[in-house]
Structure formats: structure tokens, C-alpha cells
Amino acid sequence: MKEQILECLKKAVTKLGIDASDANLSFPDNVDHGDYTTNIALISAGKSKTNPRKLAEEIVKEIEIKTPDFLESVTIAGPGFINFKIKEGILAKEVVKLSEAGDDLGKSQTEAGKKILIEYTDPNTFKAFHIGHLMANAIGESLSRLIECSGASVTRLCYAADIGLHIAKAIWAWQRHLNETPADDADIIPRTAFLGKMYVEGTKAYDDDPIAKKDIDALNKVIYDKSDDKVMALYEKGRKWSLDHFELLYKLLDTKFDAYLYESEMATVGLKIVKENMSKVFKESDGAIVFHGEDYGLHTRVFINSVGLPTYEAKDMGLNATKFSKYPDIDQSIIVTASEQNEYFKVILKALSLFDKEAAAKTMHIGHGMMRFASGKMSSRTGNVITAESLLADVREMVAEKIASRGFGEGEATEISDIIAVGAIKYSVLRSAIGSDIIFDSAKSISFEGDSGPYLQYSAVRAASILEKAKQEGVSQTVNSLPEKVSLVEKLLIRFPEIISRAKAEYAPQGVANYLMSLAGAFNSFYASQVIVDKNDKLSPYYVALTKAFRQTMVNGLWVLGIKVPEKM
């Protein structure tokens, strides 16, 4: 229907000599004004310096010559907005169709054939998987799913830091605590917690003790060169522990990567690229090799340090080359990291553009904000950072207490608590614009009645229980009668496909999160005022279909956010 309205609008404005490329449709802030609105009259009047309301009247006259049958009215509001209202009977029929859409609801084929590579999470071995990694994972996974909804093919990539000074710091300290090394068959959490503790100790020594700093720098080169078997045995053990732990977290967060690349594999590739582009892109400076970003309004960064080792910057050059070598036919390469790396990536992409313009043009960096806490701070269980594990454990514990009186079995309660805890955190991350910092309030995040992930999950679970009751009471699955008036629920339901499309186009999962919150609120209000299951009511089959459409929309929308819906709550 939207496409038909837009086509009608374009024909009308073209007839009036107005540029049809400015024609667009959006949702009015107030649904009472209509189902779609356009500001074409305001845009065109601004260009031609005419009265926008008068121009809107002329456009409406042209539209009314041949108005689509499904439109009830075309009206003008304010200074010149044109509002389109769809007949309520048509909306009701559309909802019945939506109730049968299943898992495909909200999906399209608008970008079928496109291949997108998206890199996110990127944890550091030998260090804690912290809340920044959790944020990047939630955002990257949701963006991946939004892109998949457009019909494009998505390859999820994780780039783990398994080489570098941070590992040398951890191994230096580990060498001094060998007798405290956890057994390989110990639980994974204390093993990686030990690595984190070693990293903290090594970092303090590096910062405070010049002799330790010299030793750690030397150890870093030993690890790069793989020149000491005993050191490399510790390296391989710690690396495996970290990667195994990451996999457990990915499973809990419902992420499955298609490919992994490692920083250790990029060093040689990056060195070669930097050296091949000396003078053209990179310059020697005090024994190091740098890129003078100031020449392009950016800042200078070191790509090969004074002892000849590739920095993270050089390895990023190698990473990019490896991506386009492994996936030569990708249409876009997206990288999701913390926004504190925004300026860094401007330099990286500028340097890349000077010797591989096509790859730079296809590469996009998306920076996300930081997570802060309503309480001001949160206790840390690994060093001086808040781990994803500790946050998940704390929220899971709060959820378990909340549902303890609901009669779930132990295993069932654990599974439900995990699903709700992950949903609570992911929604808190995704409800705001990606680049903004978020304030995480653990108590509000697990509310079943407020602006939270569990509230959305609970609304979907409630709808499922209504559908089960309708089935048990034998309410007909065939809709023979439609209501004369529809509610806010119907008006919101028909928006879902476009909400998904717009969120994808803008790389904005918050659009989906905010929509689902409005939809859940509308349905719960409807549920409170209308009996849905009643065999003696001829409209009951319609209300059940409406509930089914709502349930499917919530499940599909939450899937886009990476949030599961438990069977019970």
C-alpha cells in the first residue's frame, strides 16, 4: 500500500511541475492523523518560495482525481503536511494476512545478491571479555540480522587479538606464578580469570618498573619470533583457554561466527603492505615507519615501530587485505568497535584509500558508545575492568530471584534466567542510538512492566498463552468477521516491515527496539480492555488472528535484536 500511495503522490507532484525525487512517506507522530504522511509540499514550497499549505491543497486535488481504493482520506495538517489514512477494514484484512506470515514477516529481498562482511566483538586473548566486547557483540549481531532481513548474504567475522604487548605482560607475570597455574581440566572461568590477573600484574610492572618494562619488551619480540619453546608453550595454553572461553560466551549470546581471523596472522601481511607503499603512503620517522595523517586533517600514527615490529595499525592493513583476498566479491565490509576508535579508523581508512581506493570505499566503521552504570560503578571480578561474565552473572542472579516463586524446575529456571538476563542486557544496549553512551540500571533492566527487554519477552509469552487458550477452547481459525473499528495495535502492526527496512538503511537497531516497545504497550492495553478468547463472539477469531500477528511480530523483532523469547516467564 505504501508503494501505491507513493506512486500516486509522485504522479500528482510531477503533474504540478514538482521534482518527484523529493516525494517521500513517513509515519506521522500521531496515528490519529493518518497512517502515512509526506512533507513534499513544505520542501517544494521552500525551494519555490510559495505558500506550503496552498501547494499542499493543489497536490491533494491532483491525488483525489484517482485515489487508491484502500484510502479513506487524504488531508492536510499544520503548515502543509499531507496525511493519508487507510480504510480500517483494509487494515483489519492486512492484519489477518500478517498472522499467516510466519518467520518471513519483516523480511524482504530488496538487497538479494549482495554480500556483506561484518566484523565485531574482537576480544583480546589473555584479557577479560569485558562489557565493551559485550556491547560490540550485541550491536554487531543485531546489524547482521537487520542486513539479512534485506535478503543480503552476511558473513560474520571475529578478529581476536592473539599477539601483542598485552600478552607479553601476562606471560611475564605468569612465569613468576607457574606453581599457581590452574589445571587444564579446571573450569574455564578460573583459568581465564588467572590470565586476567596475570595481565593486571604484568601491566603494573610495565608501568612502574623500568627493568620489568625492558624484560617485557624483549619477551614481546620473543613471542613474535616464536624463539623460545617454553614461552610459546605458555602462549599456546593461554591462547586456547581464552578462545575456548569466548566460544562459551558467544553461545550464551546467541552469536555464531562464520570465520575467525587472528592478529598473529596479520603481522607478516601488514609488514609487507606497509613496506611496499613506502614513500607513496608511509614515511620513515626516528627509526619507525609512520603515516602523516596531518597532511589530510587527521593525526600521525606509527605502523612499524623502531624495533621493526608491526603495530596494530600495520596489522589492520594486513587484516583488510586478508578480508578482500578471502572474500573478493563482497559489496561491503563493516567494522564495529568502540567509538573511541573513530579517529583511529579515519586514519586507517585514509591510508588504505591511497593504495587501495576500492577497498577503502567498501569499508565502513561503526563506533558504539560506552556502558555506564546507574549506581556509578559496579564491582569488578577481573582486574580493573567489568567483565561480561560478571555482568551477566549479576543480572542472571537478579532474574532468578524474581522468578523463584513461579514454580519452575531447577533446569527450567536456569534456562529462563539466562534468556531473560541476556535479553535485558541486549535491550539496554540496543534501545539507544549506537554511538551514544548507555546508562545500565540493573533493576530497571529486568522489569516485566517497564521499558525493558523482559517486558517485551513477557508480552510475547503472554500472547502465546492466549493463543494456546484459544486452541484449547476451540476458537475457529477462520476469520469470517472483521471489526468496524481497529485499534492502535493494527495501525502499528502494518508498520513492521518498513521499520525493519528503515533500521537497516540507517544502521539503527534502536528503531526496532523502540517500535517493539510501542507495539507491546498497545497490545497490552488492548488485552486489558478486550476479551480475546470467546467462542460466542463472532469477532473472537479475528482477535486471535490479531494476537497471532502480534506474537509473530514480537518474536521476529526480538530476533533482529538478538533476543530469544522463552516459552514461559
Q: Strands, helices and their partners?
A:
Elements: H1 2-15, E1 36-38, H2 40-48, H3 52-65, E2 71-77, E3 81-86, H4 88-98, E4 115-119, H5 131-149, E5 153-160, H6 165-174, H7 188-208, H8 210-225, H9 229-252, E6 259-262, H10 263-276, E7 283-285, E8 288-291, E9 301-304, H11 312-326, E10 332-338, H12 342-353, H13 357-362, E11 363-368, E12 371-373, H14 388-403, H15 410-430, E13 438-440, H16 442-445, H17 453-472, H18 488-493, H19 496-505, H20 510-529, H21 540-560
Parallel strand pairs: 4-5, 4-10, 5-6, 10-11, 12-13
Antiparallel strand pairs: 1-3, 2-3, 7-8, 8-9
Helix pairs in contact: 1-3, 2-3, 4-21, 5-19, 6-7, 6-8, 7-8, 7-9, 10-11, 14-15, 17-20, 17-21, 19-20, 20-21
Strand content: 5-15%
- The residue ranges in which pLDDT falls below 50 over 5 or more consecutive positions are 377-383
Q: End-to-end distance, in Å?
A: 37 Å
CATH topology of the domain at 425-560: Isoleucyl-tRNA Synthetase, Domain 1
In helices, the fraction of residues equals 40-55%
Principal-axis shape: flat
Q: Write the CATH architecture name of the domain at 425-560.
A: Orthogonal Bundle
Work out the number of β strands.
13
Oligomer: single chain
Structural class: alpha/beta
Annotation field: number of helices: 21
| Average pLDDT rating | 94
What CATH first level of the domain at 425-560 would be assigned?
Answer: Mainly Alpha
Order of strands in the sheet with the most strands?
6-5-4-10-11
Radius of gyration: 28 Å
Q: State the fourth-level CATH superfamily of the domain at 425-560.
A: Isoleucyl-tRNA Synthetase, Domain 1
Specify the biggest β-sheet: 5 strands, parallel
